[in-house]
Design goal:
Order of helices and strands: EHEHEHHEHEHHEHEEHEHEHEHEHEHHHH
Distance between the termini: 58 Å
CATH class of the largest domain: Alpha Beta
Number of helices: 17
Number of strands: 13
Helix content: 40-55%
Radius of gyration: 22 Å
Number of domains: 2
CATH superfamily of the largest domain: Glycogen Phosphorylase B
Strand content: 5-15%
CATH architecture of the largest domain: 3-Layer(aba) Sandwich
Shape: globular
Structural class: alpha/beta
């Protein structure tokens, strides 16, 4: 008798065009999630030709564990075109995502040429497209998988966080002109076909989930896009002792990350020796931030580290007690999780990705609004914390516990395995998130639906 899926390990073909253990951002998400899924299923990874050297160094065997698809000619052309159109390094990310979405079908076409017969033959129980993460990238093979009787799962999808109206200036400085008309992607008939043919849709944020049409919500799941690898973030931060409380900011130094708001809010505390600040990251705003600190007379209280290798970031972050990150448009917020895993207490804006990771038990949220209002509220919160640093102890412990229970890659693999079983066996629809994190995500979803000022034009 042939064993049912519940009686054996599932066979999953994971499509992750971007999957690289030595890079960051989307490639690292693709790689790490694919690896985590090996804990719950027999996974064969399909990725792009630029990634195999790093994957081989990580110990996988080509042909047995992964397959490479060569679309480099098209990908290289798309990269050059995106660089030309984005009008500045590290800017115009909506333009980059658009170009990537337009060329991605070439990858799936070659995937079907190589694996179509094997999919039709029932060699795989599930085909799971992990990357691209952007919900604007449609699938050519979702319908083919459906006709072959093999479920197609897609996600985590994430992107499209609306620019707050009060930060139109930052939006323009970021060359995010296409974000004004981003909603047009919903009119593409290929999007409707992709969502219809997918057996399960994993949304990596409540914003993305809210963009899925109501008729597909019954097969949509919220599983945050990002997680952490405990082996990469070992140990904990230094508890507060004598001297100034230490905080850190980690991220690209671009307008929407809010490092300028942080410095302005912290000036009185920096000047009085109650707070010290580490800023880790590089970007076009670095000279202006240094000038801002100098003009305020607080350069001695701020250490600008510039670009820091990802593996060494935690060595600096462990010296802090706070993670101050007032970004006003963050899709996922992986850096927030990394800080929390070390025991740093986050202070973030109550919007988008970070707000889905931080609760009142684990950190502090600053209400969104105009820039001056954020600065005022952030200054008030930092002043309260510096007046009583003992309040950080419980939040630090809760932050680490939250990450360990809900936001490791192993936990995410278990959450996704429940979705696989739902697709294949028809078990009751699982709720991957649980406890206060589920309550938190529901509250965010309600605020998102009620919000009008933050909707894009």
């Amino acid at each position: 008798m042939t064993p049912t899926p519940s009686q054996r390990r599932l066979r999953v073909l994971v499509l992750a065009e971007a999957a690289n253990p030595e890079w960051v951002s989307v490639p690292l998400v693709g790689w790490t999630l694919a690896q985590a899924l090996r804990e719950v299923a027999n996974v064969h990874l399909v990725t792009q030709v630029r990634n195999p050297d790093a994957i081989l160094r990580a110990g996988l065997t080509e042909g047995e564990d992964f397959t490479v698809i060569d679309t480099e000619t098209t990908a290289a052309f798309a990269y050059k075109l995106a660089e030309r159109l984005r009008m500045g390094k590290n800017r115009g990310w909506t333009t980059v995502r658009l170009i990537e979405s337009l060329v991605y079908p070439f990858f799936e076409r070659k995937v079907w040429q190589k694996f179509g017969a094997r999919i039709k033959a029932g060699e795989f129980d599930i085909v799971h497209r992990v990357t691209p993460l952007t919900p604007t990238a449609n699938s050519l093979i979702a319908g083919k998988c459906k006709r072959a009787g093999v479920p197609f799962v897609m996600g985590p999808l994430n992107g499209g966080v609306p620019w707050p109206r009060d930060f139109r200036g930052a939006q323009l400085r970021e060359r995010e002109f296409l974000s004004f008309v981003r909603a047009a992607f919903k009119l593409n008939p290929a999007r409707g076909r992709t969502l219809k043919n997918a057996q399960a849709i994993i949304a990596g944020s409540q914003q993305t989930r809210s963009e899925i049409p109501a008729r597909y919500q019954d097969k949509t799941f919220f599983v945050p896009e990002i997680a952490i690898d405990p082996s990469r973030f070992d140990g904990s931060n230094a508890p507060y002792g004598d001297g100034p409380l230490r905080s850190c900011f980690i991220g690209r130094l671009v307008p929407y990350k809010g490092a300028d708001m942080l410095i302005e809010a912290a000036v009185p505390l920096l000047a009085d020796g109650k707070l010290a600040l580490d800023i880790l990251g590089d970007g076009p705003e670095l000279p202006a931030l240094k000038a801002q600190a100098a003009a305020a007379g607080v350069s001695d209280a701020i250490r600008f580290h510039g670009w820091v290798d990802h593996a060494k970031v935690q060595d600096i972050a462990k010296g802090a007690q706070l993670f101050t990150f007032p970004s006003i448009r963050e899709f996922g917020g992986g850096v927030v999780l990394e800080a929390m895993s070390l025991g740093l207490v986050p202070v973030i804006c109550d919007y988008a990705g970070p707000a889905e990771l931080v609760s009142d038990h684990t950190g502090y949220k600053i209400a969104m609004g105009p820039r001056d209002r954020i600065v005022q509220a952030l200054r008030q919160k930092l002043t309260e914390i510096c007046a009583d640093p003992t309040q950080l102890t419980a939040k630090s412990q809760a932050a680490r516990q939250s990450v360990q229970e809900h936001f490791t890659w192993s936990a995410k693999a278990q959450q996704i395995s429940q979705i696989y079983r739902w697709v294949l066996e028809g078990i009751p629809k699982p709720e991957p998130m649980s406890g206060h994190q589920a309550s938190l995500s529901r509250a965010i979803a309600q605020r998102l639906r009620a919000s009008r000022d933050l909707k894009p034009n």
